[in-house]
Protein backbone atom coordinates (compact mmCIF):
# COMPACT_ATOMS: atom_id res chain seq x y z
CA UNK A 1 0.00 0.00 0.00
CA UNK A 2 1.28 3.49 -0.90
CA UNK A 3 1.93 5.63 2.19
CA UNK A 4 3.97 8.79 1.57
CA UNK A 5 2.56 11.83 -0.23
CA UNK A 6 5.47 11.69 -2.70
CA UNK A 7 4.68 8.06 -3.55
CA UNK A 8 1.00 8.89 -3.96
CA UNK A 9 1.78 11.81 -6.29
CA UNK A 10 4.05 9.59 -8.41
CA UNK A 11 1.37 6.90 -8.59
CA UNK A 12 -1.28 9.48 -9.57
CA UNK A 13 1.00 10.78 -12.34
CA UNK A 14 1.53 7.22 -13.53
CA UNK A 15 -2.21 6.44 -13.67
CA UNK A 16 -2.97 9.81 -15.29
CA UNK A 17 -0.54 8.96 -18.09
CA UNK A 18 -2.28 5.68 -18.97
CA UNK A 19 -4.57 5.55 -22.03
CA UNK A 20 -7.94 4.82 -20.42
CA UNK A 21 -10.91 4.55 -22.80
CA UNK A 22 -13.23 7.53 -22.32
CA UNK A 23 -16.92 7.38 -23.21
CA UNK A 24 -19.59 10.07 -23.32
CA UNK A 25 -23.24 9.06 -23.43
CA UNK A 26 -26.44 11.05 -23.57
CA UNK A 27 -29.12 10.24 -20.99
CA UNK A 28 -32.61 11.55 -21.79
CA UNK A 29 -33.85 11.22 -18.18
CA UNK A 30 -34.58 14.30 -16.06
CA UNK A 31 -34.48 16.68 -19.01
CA UNK A 32 -31.38 15.14 -20.57
CA UNK A 33 -27.72 15.24 -19.60
CA UNK A 34 -24.37 13.71 -20.60
CA UNK A 35 -22.33 11.17 -18.65
CA UNK A 36 -18.57 10.95 -19.19
CA UNK A 37 -16.57 8.04 -17.84
CA UNK A 38 -13.97 5.40 -18.57
CA UNK A 39 -14.65 1.85 -19.73
CA UNK A 40 -12.04 0.46 -17.34
CA UNK A 41 -13.06 2.65 -14.37
CA UNK A 42 -16.84 2.19 -14.04
CA UNK A 43 -16.98 3.97 -10.67
CA UNK A 44 -15.51 7.18 -12.11
CA UNK A 45 -18.21 9.12 -13.97
CA UNK A 46 -19.24 12.75 -14.13
CA UNK A 47 -22.22 14.51 -15.68
CA UNK A 48 -22.84 17.75 -17.52
CA UNK A 49 -25.39 19.58 -19.63
CA UNK A 50 -23.09 19.23 -22.65
CA UNK A 51 -20.55 16.56 -23.63
CA UNK A 52 -17.75 19.10 -23.11
CA UNK A 53 -18.96 19.95 -19.61
CA UNK A 54 -19.15 16.27 -18.62
CA UNK A 55 -15.62 15.61 -19.94
CA UNK A 56 -14.24 18.71 -18.20
CA UNK A 57 -15.73 17.56 -14.88
CA UNK A 58 -14.37 14.05 -15.42
CA UNK A 59 -10.85 15.33 -16.08
CA UNK A 60 -10.99 17.48 -12.92
CA UNK A 61 -12.20 14.54 -10.83
CA UNK A 62 -9.82 11.90 -12.26
CA UNK A 63 -6.67 12.69 -10.19
CA UNK A 64 -8.73 13.02 -7.00
CA UNK A 65 -10.38 9.65 -7.73
CA UNK A 66 -6.97 8.00 -8.21
CA UNK A 67 -5.71 9.56 -4.97
CA UNK A 68 -8.71 8.26 -3.01
CA UNK A 69 -8.28 4.76 -4.44
CA UNK A 70 -4.57 4.75 -3.62
CA UNK A 71 -5.09 5.96 -0.06
CA UNK A 72 -7.82 3.36 0.54
CA UNK A 73 -5.83 0.57 -1.11
CA UNK A 74 -8.48 0.07 -3.81
CA UNK A 75 -7.23 -1.78 -6.89
CA UNK A 76 -7.06 0.47 -9.99
CA UNK A 77 -7.46 -1.60 -13.17
CA UNK A 78 -5.14 -1.00 -16.12
CA UNK A 79 -6.43 0.30 -19.46
CA UNK A 80 -7.89 -2.20 -21.90
CA UNK A 81 -5.32 -3.29 -24.46
CA UNK A 82 -6.59 -2.55 -27.96
CA UNK A 83 -7.14 -5.75 -29.88
CA UNK A 84 -4.80 -6.26 -32.76
CA UNK A 85 -6.53 -7.49 -35.88
CA UNK A 86 -5.09 -8.78 -39.10
CA UNK A 87 -7.88 -7.41 -41.28
CA UNK A 88 -8.69 -10.93 -42.39
CA UNK A 89 -11.76 -12.93 -41.46
CA UNK A 90 -12.98 -16.40 -42.36
CA UNK A 91 -16.72 -16.35 -42.85
CA UNK A 92 -18.79 -19.46 -43.42
CA UNK A 93 -22.03 -19.14 -45.36
CA UNK A 94 -24.32 -21.29 -47.45
CA UNK A 95 -23.01 -21.88 -50.99
CA UNK A 96 -26.16 -20.27 -52.43
CA UNK A 97 -25.47 -17.04 -50.54
CA UNK A 98 -21.85 -17.08 -51.70
CA UNK A 99 -23.00 -17.48 -55.30
CA UNK A 100 -25.50 -14.62 -54.90
CA UNK A 101 -22.80 -12.34 -53.49
CA UNK A 102 -20.46 -13.18 -56.37
CA UNK A 103 -23.24 -12.48 -58.89
CA UNK A 104 -24.14 -9.10 -57.34
CA UNK A 105 -20.46 -8.09 -57.12
CA UNK A 106 -20.02 -8.94 -60.81
CA UNK A 107 -23.10 -6.85 -61.67
CA UNK A 108 -21.56 -3.96 -59.72
CA UNK A 109 -18.25 -4.47 -61.50
CA UNK A 110 -16.23 -4.96 -58.32
CA UNK A 111 -14.49 -7.85 -56.60
CA UNK A 112 -16.38 -9.93 -54.07
CA UNK A 113 -14.10 -8.56 -51.34
CA UNK A 114 -14.83 -4.95 -52.34
CA UNK A 115 -18.55 -5.58 -52.55
CA UNK A 116 -18.63 -7.16 -49.08
CA UNK A 117 -16.52 -4.32 -47.60
CA UNK A 118 -18.91 -1.75 -49.06
CA UNK A 119 -21.97 -3.61 -47.74
CA UNK A 120 -20.43 -3.86 -44.26
CA UNK A 121 -19.45 -0.18 -44.28
CA UNK A 122 -23.02 0.79 -45.23
CA UNK A 123 -24.41 -1.36 -42.41
CA UNK A 124 -22.04 0.18 -39.85
CA UNK A 125 -22.81 3.70 -41.09
CA UNK A 126 -26.54 3.04 -40.87
CA UNK A 127 -26.20 1.72 -37.32
CA UNK A 128 -24.05 4.69 -36.22
CA UNK A 129 -26.51 7.15 -37.80
CA UNK A 130 -29.38 5.50 -35.89
CA UNK A 131 -27.43 5.80 -32.62
CA UNK A 132 -26.70 9.47 -33.32
CA UNK A 133 -30.38 10.18 -34.03
CA UNK A 134 -31.38 8.42 -30.81
CA UNK A 135 -28.83 10.40 -28.77
CA UNK A 136 -30.14 13.72 -30.11
CA UNK A 137 -33.72 13.05 -29.03
Terminal residue distance: 46 Å
Percentage of residues in DSSP E strands? 5-15%
Count of extended strands: 3
Listing every helix as H and every strand as E from the N terminus to the C terminus, the arrangement reads HEEEHHH
Sheet with the most strands, sense and barrel status? 3 strands, antiparallel
Structural class category: alpha+beta
Q: What is the strand arrangement across the widest sheet?
A: 1-2-3
Poorly predicted ranges = none
Domain count: 2
Quick check: average pLDDT?
90
Helix percentage range: 40-55%
Shape, per Cα inertia axes: elongated
Radius of gyration: 23 Å
Secondary structure tally, helices: 4
Record keyword descriptors for this entry.
single chain; 137 residues; alpha+beta; 2 domains
Description of the structure:
The protein has 137 residues and is an alpha+beta fold. It has two domains: 5-72; 95-135. 53% of the residues lie in helices and 15% in strands. It has helices at 5-17, 51-72, 95-108, 112-135, and strands spanning 22-27, 33-38, 41-48. It has a three-stranded antiparallel sheet, covered by helices on one side. The longest helix has 24 residues, at 112-135. The chain is elongated.
Amino acid sequence: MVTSETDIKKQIEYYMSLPYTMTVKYRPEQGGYYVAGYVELPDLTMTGNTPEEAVKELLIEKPEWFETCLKLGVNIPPPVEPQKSSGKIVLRMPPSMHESLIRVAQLEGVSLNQYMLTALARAIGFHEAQEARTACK
